[in-house]
Amino acid sequence: MHVEILETSHDRPLATQRDLVQAHPSGLASLSLPFKAGQNHEDLDHVVRRNHMFLQRYGLLQSDALPRRGLSEIVRYPALLYPIAEDAALDIAVDAVTWSSLWSEQYQRLCHNDDQLVDSMIWQLVDITLHRVGIQPADEAPPLVWAFADIWKREAARLSLLYQQRAATNWRRWFLCFARDDIPDQYRDEPSLSNHPSDRYSTYSAVLGDLIEGSLKFELPRGTYESPEVEELRDILADSMRWVSDVASASEGNPRDGNVVSVLQKQWRLSTDQAIGKVCDMHGRLMQRWCLLRDRLPHLYGTLRLDEEARIQLQRYVMGVESLMAGHYAWHAGVAPLA
User: Fold this and answer.
1) What is the per-residue pLDDT for 26?
2) pLDDT at 215
3) Residues 6 and 320: beta-carbon distance below 8 Å
4) Nearest-angstrom CA–CA distance, 72 and 249
5) What is the rounded distance in angstroms from the CA atom of residue 215 to the CA atom of residue 146?
6) Domain boundaries in the chain?
7) Which of 14, 63, 114, 130 has the fewest CB atoms within 10 Å, i.e. the most exposed one?
8) Would the CA dihedral through 204, 205, 210, 212 be positive or negative?
9) pTM score, two decimals?
10) Residue pair 28/277 in contact by the 8 Å Cβ criterion
């Protein structure tokens, strides 16, 4: 399966390349991260059963449409991304990520056969993010729409209006990546819909980042999410996740549209191995930027006058973003087995 990360201990040992990277035919052996993937200690079978019940509740499992083994593999991915989440917290992340996978698969199946149904579902999903948390879809809404309303309600629960608005915007931006250019009349005056984003990967990484807070029920201190430093950390997250996926898919001979390895091959007339090497070098420099930014965070503490509790929340978020990157890498490289 191809798929589109939390530890709060401040004394967590950093990983060396030998720690994290093992020989792997995908080409990822040439790529390293300066931190280790976490290990989720939840019983994966229990997590799969809970997710199975959620999907079944909304009719998203038609008899054996998703084999048990297949569902276990899908669930393993968010368990790697959010290693310290447990119980209900982990269920929020798992349900959101498995739902996203099912939505993407259904979109691929329907987009060439029933454009009207796809567009209708997209705008129903958008509508949920434009209204107050807890609003129910129309009775005739498809099961995927009802399931998303459930996930969004749990993610936003007990969090501030500021978080809800930001996370809803990121979900909406991702949904709009699937939409055609024509905006329904009832949304014409909605400023947040004026420009459709084009990058599904970057917008989805923003959704995953929000789930760090939404699953564990804490929030970044006011003003930090919009700060240039934290914004750059999120940009690095998006680039890292994209490049790791691109190297893996290119090594397997199945690059997606816009794969950075393929782009470099065409622009510089490189072989696949040469282009992969270039991307791994780019990723190494990206991780150097990450470490420099992380080391400069104490300056942000002073600038925003963060107290001790606020600093801890920011550190939790940064560790969460590291876990997203490390877990995403570990998923593709297969170097982080779960308990």
Assistant:
1) 53
2) 97
3) yes
4) 21
5) 19
6) 1-34+220-339, 37-219
7) 63
8) positive
9) 0.87
10) no
- HEC string for the chain: CCCCCCCCCCCCCCCCHHHHCCCCCCCHHHCCCCCCCCCCCCCHHHHHHHHHHHHHHCCCCCCCCCCHHHHHHHHHHHHHHCCCCCHHHHHHHHHHHHHHHHHHHHHHHHCCCCHHHHHHHHHHHHHHHHCCCCCCCCCCCCHHHHHHHHHHHHHHCCCCHHHHHHHHHHHHHHHHCCCCCCCCHHHCCCHHHCCCCCCHHHHHHHHHHHHHHHHHCCCCCCCCCCCHHHHHHHHHHHHHHHHHHHHHHHHCCCCCCCCHHHHHHHHHCCCHHHHHHHHHHHHHHHHHHHHHHHHCHHHHHHHCCCCHHHHHHHHHHHHHHHHHHHHHHHHHHCCCCCC
Count Cβ atoms within 10 A of the Cβ of residue 134 and give its class: 0-12 exposed, 13-18 middle, 19 or more buried.
exposed
Task: Give, in words, the CATH class of 37-219.
Answer: mainly alpha
User: Which residues lie below 8 Å from residue 154, measured CB to CB, with a gap of 6+?
Assistant: 88, 91, 92, 95
Across the chain, which has 339 residues, the per-10-residue mean pLDDT values are 34 34 56 88 93 93 56 89 96 96 86 82 94 91 96 97 96 89 75 67 93 97 93 95 93 84 93 93 96 91 92 96 95 63
CATH number for the domain formed by residue range(s) 1-34+220-339: 1.10.600.10
Distance separating alpha carbons of residues 61 and 55, to the nearest angstrom: 6
The pLDDT score that the predictor gives to residue 116 is 83
**Hey, do 1-34+220-339 and 37-219 end up sharing a CATH topology, with the first three levels equal?**
yes
